Amino acid sequence: MAPEATPQSIETRLFINGEVRAFTIFISKVSTTYQNHGVSMSKLSEATEKDVDQAVAAAKSAQPAWANLTVEQRGSYFKKFAKLIRESNDELATLEAISMGFPKSRYFHAMACAGTFDHYSEAGYDMQGTTSLNTPGFVSMTLRQPYGVVAAIIPWNVPLIMLANKIAPALAVGNTVVLKSSEKAPLTSCKIASLVKEAGFPPGVFNILSGHGHISGAALSSHMEVRALSFTGSTRTGRVIQQAAAQSNLKVIFLELGGKSPVCIFEDADLEVAADDTQHSIQGNSGQTCMATTRVYVQDTVAEKFIGLFKSKFEAVTIGDPLHPGTNHGPQADKVQYDNVLRYIEMGKKEGTLALGGSTVEGDGYFIRPTIFTNTPEDARTMKEEIFGPVVHINTFSTEEEVMEKANNTEYGLYASVYTKDINRALKFAKGLEAGTVGVNCTSPTQGRDMPFGGWKGSGIGREGMPLYTMSNFLEMKTVVVKVGF
Ligand code: NAI
Ligand code: MG
User: Fold this and answer.
1) Fewer CB near the last or first residue (10 Å), C or N of the chain?
2) pTM for the whole structure
3) For residue range 281-298, what is the model confidence (pLDDT) as tens digits?
4) 256 belongs to the catalytic site
């Protein structure tokens, strides 16, 4: 099956100050599916430090006029943009499938992205300061004002969802932005650049760069004119960005990082539902999800039954070409990710018992079968580190105290779940689990649409997702004290 977007028609250039630009330094994109189809990938423009400077300068000069527009005027661009994204859904789905292997049949990112821009098109008025008469002789107030230039660095696993979650709130409250996409999945962001232009955003308001982390990502993190930066990706890179922020201008940073999410399944739970939810959590996007349920703890009395249910559901996937309508399990994003997951699988075979999968699929493509390990010691590396593949560990427990301790024995804290019909136990775990989101009788990717999302401990700093909270992230606060004669 030939890809619908031909290499010649794919946008690969940088988008700075409202214009597309190609530069002389290129990266070759590693793409599984294009290689599978015998088509070699087009080359992409790689942003240099100079390009970053120009994009930030364009954003800086566009910012005062953008902030001076009314909420409705800014929102009108968002509405046009959202409509164009919806109209491009099919093309965006194809680009993501050929870029990082997300199955086209399951693609929802573009619609979610459009929905977010639609929502924020009318949300700007919700951001207000406060006033106070509590200091005699003064009227005091706070003003909420945009930072100026905001940077966003996004990963490759759900690129357009991350793009929308960061860019829409930042722009809605009057900042201008420079986005850097991931070198592993740059094509949808390049396409989005053409839609930014078509929607008529003023030049410089929304700049989009492609390139590697150590060049343009590092330049944005240490840039003196970038006042806030929102990042999603690995904990390792999150640390590097925090250091760069500290060593440059102390820009405010928001970090959405990795996870090693536990689920605690008690004998009184609906095991059928628990098995279905948990395998779905780790199977979706071939395990390449920050909040995926990777550590399953099941009560020993029902372990055998649960593992049987889990196995039968988890292995029933259709692995293959992500462009094919029947596929629900695509390849890992690239060779680096594939090799990394396979390295963990070999490690896991030594640390625990392989109960399902553990192998690749013959032929081309970075395909890995759904894999289960059981009986792995809690302190094993594969129980501690983020694998980012279709690999799950299932261990058993006998008491509440034991499983609470095991679930929390991690440096991560993004998502945790409990399955039980006992309301007291459910709430005890809702309180006791150390994570930014706790699911009761449900697990990731379940989220409250209007609830904040983010990590405890090494899983991050700050929250996004909830409209009011996220817009607030991108606003400075100023106190004004007015001396009055009464
Ligand atoms: P990464 O964290 O290195 O990349 C994410 C983004 O950060 C990309 O846009 C990248 O270009 C940029 N970046 C890399 N180094 C940078 C630097 N020094 N300064 C500024 N930006 C930089 O993650 P990568 O290499 O794509 O994946 C490796 C692992 O990270 C995965 O196996 C997974 O465990 C984890 N990861 C977690 C994600 C999540 O959703 N929490 C998303 C992507 C990766
Ligand atoms: Mg990296």
Assistant:
1) C
2) 0.95
3) 999 999 999 999 999 999
4) yes
